[in-house]
Queue: 2 jobs
Job 1
Amino acid sequence: MKTFIKLILITGALLLATASAAQDTPQDDSEALKLAAMEALISAPPERALPLVNKVLAGNNSIELKERALFILSQIDDEGAQQTLLELAKNPGGELQAEAIRMIGVGGNEASLASLKGIYESGDGEARDAILEAFLIAGDKQAILDIAVSSEGDDFERAVDMLGAMGASAELRELLSRTGPSEALIEAYAISGDIEELRRMALDDSNPEIQAQAIEAMGIVGGEDANATLVQIYRDATSEEIREAALDGMLISNNDAGVLELYRSSDDPAMKRELLEYLVMMGSDDVWNIIDSALAGDQ
Amino acid sequence: MRAAEMILLLALTFAVVCGEALAAGFLPANATGWHTWQVDEPNSLTAMCCSNSRRGDGSEAGCNLDSRNISFSDGGSCAATPGPLQVYVRLEDGRVKDIRMLSANCVVATDSKIADQGLVSVGENIGWFRSVVEDRSLAQSVREEALFALASSGSDSAYAYLDGLLSRR
């Protein structure tokens, strides 16, 4: 019987050692496994994944794990999954609200995306930003246009920035027709690369401030077409503001060839000096050619 | 009676110490190279296969297990005709280095020999993947592959295991 007791003790010791080894498992390994397990559920059938995802969301788990659960939820084509995302998206100030909103964008479910417009009205700044991001992710230009039309101030500017980043030229033009020109819109035109609309505004002298902003924005777009237009605007300019805007545009697009062309064709010492200053700012190699020519008495 | 007690307890002790080794019992000890087995689950079919993008066009049919430029898919030109799950694992001295889960109908090539372990039961297969997940000495990428294998399995025990893992404190 002594052997029997010894064996029990040995077995007990081994079980304790196993338990102890389990306790030694670092928390980060356990968390890393949970995160990987959650990601792996992407390959599971929805009816298998959904209960596990919901359990994690309802449990006392890390935000990171819950956020990954939201991503899995966004990939499940199931009414219940969309409902859970929407409930979290509607929860004001909830720790998962913004991520749930973004995941609705990732999932791209049309009905859920449409529900975000209602949440935008009552949401705080973080929720509203997340909703714009969701529409950006989903590529829903019309939804962002609708928000821009009904927004003011920072909200308007953020929506317009999004449209610019999406290259939504048609929506930006529609917005211009409904709200009139603004600096935010001009920047968005530049980011979206709508050189045609910028040129139209750059040649329209009815509002010199807007005109100057559009001229500078052409420099952001750059390219041969924009550069040629900026040189022509400089030549035709009837005010110092417009001339300077054209020069700033050329500076932004690093069009030193255009500035050099203007320098060489100018007879006005003050203008030549200003043009030379821009060439210096642009770090143009041609500056040294000009200096050499000046020293040689050519210019 | 005493002898019977000893045998019983020795068996228990052995099971505690070697539990993980038993889970991989269908693989030779300290094996090296590619090994494969088919999961004995005739009703669970997969079209998973791959193409090698080494040549740039991604159109080469089948999988070169040694290639690092593989695109896996169960749809489109990468897919094989649906078949039972065929597991490929690369071992180095018994340690798992790579895992691939493909359709048994996916054409596979490798520079070395593939040791075929034949049919493996669902339980043994799940047990092996569980042992890989729990082995902290293995690369995280390998353990993650094992988790994907468990999640894509239709087995209740695999989901019970994942549930338990996600519920750990």
Job 2
Amino acid sequence: MSEQLPLTPSQTVGPYLRLGLDWPKGADVVPPGTPGEIVISGIVYDGAGVPITDGLIETWQADPDGRFAHPDDPRGAVEPSVPGFLGFGRSCTDETGRWSVRTVLPGALPALDTEAQEAPHLDVSVFARGLLDRVVTRIYLAGQPGNDADPLLAAVPAERRDTLVAEKVGEAEYRFDIHLQGDRETVFLQV
Amino acid sequence: MTLAHPRPYLQPRDTHPPLDFAGYKSTGLRAPTQRPIVVPQRLTEVTGPLLVGEIGPNDHDLTRQHEGEPLGQRITVSGRVLDSDGRPVPDTLVEVWQANAAGRYAHKRDNWPAPLDPNFSGGGRVVTNSLGEYSFTTIKPGAYPWGNHHNAWRPAHIHFSLFGRAFTQRLVTQMYFPEDPLFAFDPIFRSAPEGARERMISTFDMDTTQPEWALSYRWDIVLRGREQTPFEEPHE
Ligand SMILES: [Fe+3]
């Protein structure tokens, strides 16, 4: 093993993150008008139940075929089957604490370490003033048949599993609120 | 079908601040109270966005984004993005944001009585070259007060955002300037473990200082690598 360099520590994004991290079309994982597009949105709450208006949500996901345009996918990098699909979404929370991304349903994935399949999901990073490091969670989508067999959901205590599942609130709309603390504290992951 | 499992990016201990750090008040209602669930790195984690977004012609030079030049000490900030295995991270997006020379952000929620500079917005982005190198031109940001406690002042800093090449390598941090007298009083700087804080401080570099133009600060950023001794660092 070669000599290791010590890592740079994390620090908070602070309250003025928009100056560096707000992208005009950041919330578009797919271009508007993409067939099959869905919108996932929600509100980020602090421990007093107050919406967080200086936060940032980032999402990362496979394309609808369950593939990544990335060389570290052992199945090989493939160009997304959806034109303009980025896999990555970014949304600053607004004056009401709301974030939102426009995307398409990700495909299921092989889990690699088990025979199980991972149900469609998005990895999520939450940044905000008051968070000295990002916190990580996952969005699963209500009604997906694979959710019951997903190995990550299975590792989460049953009574908290719902915090990882976005509710279907419209034809093509899902709602995923994030609670940093409290009775409904979202399950956060250490990856 | 059997697939080789990609090696995970490992997290060493004694690096990142605890999420609940009493000295920084805003952590009180925001740091999760339950321990995170430790999960294996699968395909979504060992991949990550390789995109760079749209880079404008002056995104690397924060002194040229307006008609006139901003006031303040012109500086360059440059260095390398590496992973802990010592490998450079090429072609990766580096985003920065900062206050102006007087310590004021061009943000509607920053309204302490220091002047705004009409020639300074304070946001920038670059992509590292094939050697993992980045470079910005900007002005040295001022210190600024904040409401955390009586007479609280942030040491001068530049916010940095990095992606690396995997979801697990994502990092947002702050770069500080050498020998700032405010280090001793700043809970955000001090939230990082002793021994790790110093890695956030840039070095003044005479060799790359440009005569009659700009002082040079150098700062290397190290993201998670794959060969690290696998210590877990649960957030308290
Ligand atoms: Fe700041």
